[in-house]
Amino acid sequence: MLSTLVYRSRASAQLTEEGIHQLLGAARLRNKSIGVTGVLLFDGVHFVQLLEGPERALDGLFDTIRQDRRHHHVVQLLRDYAPLRRFDGDEMLMVDLRGHGAEEASAAILNQLKEQVDPTLSDDRVLKILLLHAGPGGAALMAESDLASEWRCVAQPAPAGTGEHLLPGQPYQFALQPIVDALRREVTSFECLLRSSTGGSPEQLFDSLTPEQRYVADLESKAFAFQLASRLKIEDAKVSVNLFPMSLIGVPNAVDRLLGQISASGLRPSQVIVEVTEQEAISRLDAFGAAIKQLRKAGIGVAIDDFGAGFAGLSLLAEFQPDKLKIDRKILQNIHLDGSRQAIVRAIVQACTAMGITPVAEGVETLEEFCWLSAAGVRRFQGYLFARPALNAIPAISWPERIRELPGA
Ligand SMILES: Cc1cc2nc3c(=O)[nH]c(=O)nc-3n(C[C@H](O)[C@H](O)[C@H](O)COP(=O)(O)O)c2cc1C
Q1: pLDDT tens by residue, 149-198
Q2: Single GO molecular-function term (predicted)?
Q3: What atom of ligand 1 comes closest to residue 9's alpha carbon?
Q4: What is the topology classification, in CATH, of domain 2-141?
Q5: Ligand 1: does its nearest atom lie under 6 Å from the Cβ of 28?
Q6: How far, in whole angstroms, is CA 233 from its chain's centroid?
Q7: At what angle do helices 254-265 and 285-297 cross, to 10 degrees?
């Protein structure tokens, strides 16, 4: 099947004029032999390349190109299928954008392309992306992040005497995972993740219960989370607990019961954040809104969890601006490689900033993801890169640090 791919990358510093010439010669020969056509744009710093050809040939070629050390920060901007080639010339085009003024750049490309591009494709998404990224606005669309190879993680051991363990006879157990401000090296909160009496998953705990019992158990369990947090002396960090929206709506006096649990544990309401998932909230927005008001009035923080993985993301955000918005791993995974994900996350971060909401990146597992998210303005992180959840204990934390400090830093 005919497939189209557009990516953007940054040229390595050592790539010379002669080097670009050689690269182009070899690339043209190979592309011809595997039935790939396209265009390579270069502005002296960035490459933008469009490749089109049989799907499997393109997959193999992009794997090779991605690993080429003559460039880095290779971000896929688009991958799609098309009924026909946009570039059916004999060899891959090269458009040198150097020397063009900002406004001229797009015009220069169009001039060079029009011979080969079907005019009926002028409103085409692929060409729009190509022109946008080649033009003056292209750089502003991409967060230019550090190279992950310039960073490493340094482990800070868990506090002495707090190994993972089960608390015998306790119906609910909790695993603690920190949410960190990575650059300040501060734990801002610990999320208490619910576990069954034997340390099993929440599904194990809830599956045998009716929905009503589930919501009561959900609420009841939080007393143990607050007690644990209080015992472990989490200092200035806050305590985050998850609640089904229906536990807040459906269980009588839910917020008062929560406040009772908090006070019995010796914590203050302002130390607590309630995380709600988007999924269930939409069915009873009014009742949910009333519960959120009550939480706020009591001084408890509110976070929307798993944002982007459910159904009501934007409407929930418009209706109730939470203190924190936790962006789901589904959108963040491999974000450094994917232009569509980057565009979405940049927009989320921008919206959060405008509303005074703190965005939190969930499920961050690699330095590459961390570097990109930091460049996009995210400061709060949670995920295996920093710490795995620890059962009834404070886990060891890994802190990212730059291998060499920047000059003048
Ligand atoms: C910006 C850039 C664009 C490239 N475009 C192509 C291309 O279109 N076709 C190609 O065969 N190689 C291209 N290459 C080179 C490949 O990464 C690789 O070096 C080449 O395919 C030889 O691979 P091989 O050593 O596996 O034979 C490009 C490299 C860079 C840095």
Answers
A1: 999 999 998 887 778 999 999 999 999 999 999 999 999 999 999 999 99
A2: cyclic-guanylate-specific phosphodiesterase activity
A3: 1
A4: Alpha-Beta Plaits (3.30.70)
A5: no
A6: 30
A7: 30
Residue extent(s) of CATH 3.20.20.450 domains in the chain: 148-402
Q: Which pLDDT does position 125 carry in this prediction?
A: 87
CB-ligand 1 contact for 226 (6 Å cutoff): no
Judge whether 194 and 242 are in contact, CB under 8 Å.
yes
Name the residue of 12, 40, 52, 65 to mutate for ligand 1: max ligand atoms within 8 A of Cβ.
65
* Whether residue 37 has its Cβ less than 6 Å from ligand 1: no
Is 217's C-beta closer than 6 angstroms to any atom of ligand 1? Answer: no
Beta strand spans in 55-99 (E):
71-81, 93-96
CATH homologous superfamily for 148-402?
Answer: EAL domain (3.20.20.450)
* pLDDT in the model for residue 115: 62
310 DSSP 8-state letter: S
> What SS3 state is found at 320?
coil
Looking at ligand 1, which residue's alpha carbon is closest to its atom 28?
A: 65
* C-alpha–C-alpha distance, residues 14 and 232, integer Å: 52
Distance of alpha carbon 97 from alpha carbon 48, whole angstroms: 11
| Cα 186 from Cα 294, distance rounded (Å) | 29
Question: How does residue 407 score in pLDDT terms, banded at 50, 70 and 90?
Answer: low
| Tokens matching residue 183 | 């650059």
Give me 375's structure tokens: 């460049």
Instruction: Give the whole-angstrom CA distance, residue 217 versus residue 194.
Output: 11
What band does 353 get if pLDDT is binned at 50, 70 and 90?
A: very high
Q: What distance in angstroms lies between residue 386's CA and the mean position of ligand 1's atoms?
A: 35
Q: In the chain, list all ranges with CATH 3.30.70.100.
A: 2-141
Q: What is the pLDDT of residue 266?
A: 96
pLDDT exceeds cutoff 80 at 144: no
pLDDT per position as a tens digit, 12-44? 988 899 999 999 999 999 999 999 999 999 988
Percent of the chain with pLDDT over 70: 91
